Amino acid sequence: MPAQSHDNAWADPSATPRTAIRYDWSLEEIEALFALPFNDLLFRAQQVHREYFDPNAVQISTLLSIKTGACPEDCKYCPQSGHYNTGLGKEKLLEVEKVVEQAKAAKDAGASRFCMGAAWRSPRERDLDVVLEMVGRVKALGLETCMTLGMVDAHQAGRLAEAGLDYYNHNLDTSPEYYGEIITTRSYADRLDTLSNVRDAGMKVCSGGILGMGEAPRDRAALLQQLARLEPHPESVPINMLVKVPGTPMENVEDLDPLEFIRAIAVARILMPKSHVRLSAGREQMDESTQAMAFLAGANSIFYGDTLLTTGNPQVERDRALFDKLGLHPEPIDPDAPDARSDDEQDEIALAHAIQRQRDDALFYDAARA
Ligand code: SAM
Ligand code: DTB
Ligand code: SF4
C-alpha cells in the first residue's frame, strides 16, 4: 500500500476553529451522544475527525505475540489465559532475531508500527532485558515500537522509555462497573496505575477496550468516559470487538449489533479528537461495509497482517483491496515527532542493549525457561 499524495486542506488550522479538547465529559453527555440519530452522530464524528486528521489516512500497525499462552490472569475474553482450555500451549519468549525478522517483514508489507505482546501479568526483570533489546532492534529498522506486557511499575516503565519504546499498550477493557465480571486477578486501579507510570516515563499511551462482552450500553459510555478522563488523552485508542474464542467463558456471549460498535467508534472520535482510534480486533468477522462505516466514524488505525496475537485478522491482500476500494492510504510516520531518533542514535541504543544482554546472559539468563 504505497502512500499517495493528498489534499492537505484538513491540516490547515486556520480553516476552522478546532474542537476544544476536554477531559470532563459527564456520563450523561456521553450517553446523549450515543443516543443521537445515527447520521447526526457520524456526521459530527467526521467533522471532528477532519479538524485533526487527513480523513483518508489510516495508521498501520502489525502485531506479534512474543510470548504466548499460560497467562496467570483470568481475563474471561482471552484465549491466552491459563485458566481456560483454548488449546494454546505455553510458549517461551521469542528470540530477538525471530522478532526482528517478523518486524522486517511487517515493514516490507507496509506497517509503520510494530506492536509486541506478551501473555504476562507483568514482565520479570530478566525478561525485560530481552524485551529492551527487541525495542532497540525494531526501532533501528525505522519502525515505531509498541509493547503490551501487562502491568509495569515506574521503574520498568522508565527502562522501556529509555530503550526508546514509543507506545505502551494497556487497555482498560470495559467500564469500572462491569470490570469485576470480566477479570478478578487485577483491579481497575492497577490498570490506571500502569497507565500513569507509562505516561510519567514519557511514552505514548495506547489504551482502549473490548466491546461485545455482554456489557450494557452504559458500560460502553463509561469505558469511553474513563479513557477521555486521562489527561492527556491516550495517543492511541484501540476499540476491539470481542473475538469469541472457544474454551473461554465468553465463547457464547451474544453478538453486539455492529451499528452499536460503530456508534462507540464515533463517540470515541468526538471525545478524543486528537487520538488515533484503532479499529482493532474483530475485523476478520466484520464485513467491508461495517469497516467502511468505522472509518467514516473516525477510526484511523488498524492492525495489518494475517494474525493478531493468536487469532486471525484479514489477509493483507483483502486489506489492500479494501483500501483501494475506499481510497484510503497508509499514514506515514511523522518525521517531525519530537522523539524521532536518528539512525545513529537508534544503532547506539540497540548496541548498548545487545552488550547488556550478553552480560546478563553470562550471569543468569536461562534460555530454556518460558
Ligand atoms: N497480557 C497483557 C495485558 O493484558 O495487559 C498484554 C496482552 S493482552 C492479550 C492485550 C489486549 O488484548 C487485552 O487487554 C484485550 O483488550 C485484548 N484482547 C485479548 N483477547 C481478546 C479477544 N478475544 N477479543 C478482543 N480483544 C482481546
Ligand atoms: C489491543 O487492543 N488489541 C490487540 C492489542 N491491543 C495487543 C490484541 C487483540 C488480541 C485478540 C485476541 C488474540 O489474537 O489473541
Ligand atoms: Fe493474560 Fe493479557 Fe490475556 Fe489477560 S489479556 S489473560 S493479562 S494475556
Question: What does this entry look like structurally?
Answer:
With 370 residues, the chain is an alpha/beta fold. It is 40% helix and 12% strand. It has a single domain (46-369), classed as Aldolase class I (TIM Barrel), CATH 3.20.20. It has helices at residues 27-34, 38-52, 96-109, 125-139, 154-162, 176-182, 188-200, 217-229, 258-271, 288-296, 316-326, 343-363, and strands spanning 57-67, 113-118, 144-148, 167-169, 204-206, 209-211, 236-241, 276-279, 301-303, 329-330. Strands 1, 2, 3, 4, 5, 6, 7, 8, 9 and 10 form a 10-stranded parallel beta sheet that branches. Helix 1 packs across helix 8 and helix 2 (38-52) crosses helix 9. It is globular. Bound molecules: S-adenosylmethionine (SAM), 6-(5-methyl-2-OXO-imidazolidin-4-yl)-hexanoic acid and iron/sulfur cluster. The site of 6-(5-methyl-2-OXO-imidazolidin-4-yl)-hexanoic acid has 16 residues, from strand 7.
Bound molecules: S-adenosylmethionine, 6-(5-methyl-2-OXO-imidazolidin-4-yl)-hexanoic acid, iron/sulfur cluster
Mean pLDDT: 88
Order of helices and strands: HHEHEHEHEHHEEHEHEHEHEH
Rounded to the nearest angstrom, the distance between the terminal CA atoms is 37 Å
CATH architecture label: Alpha-Beta Barrel
Alpha plus pi helix count: 12
What's the CATH class label?
Alpha Beta
Query: Which band does the percent of strand residues land in?
Result: 5-15%
Question: What is the makeup of the main sheet?
Answer: 10 strands, parallel
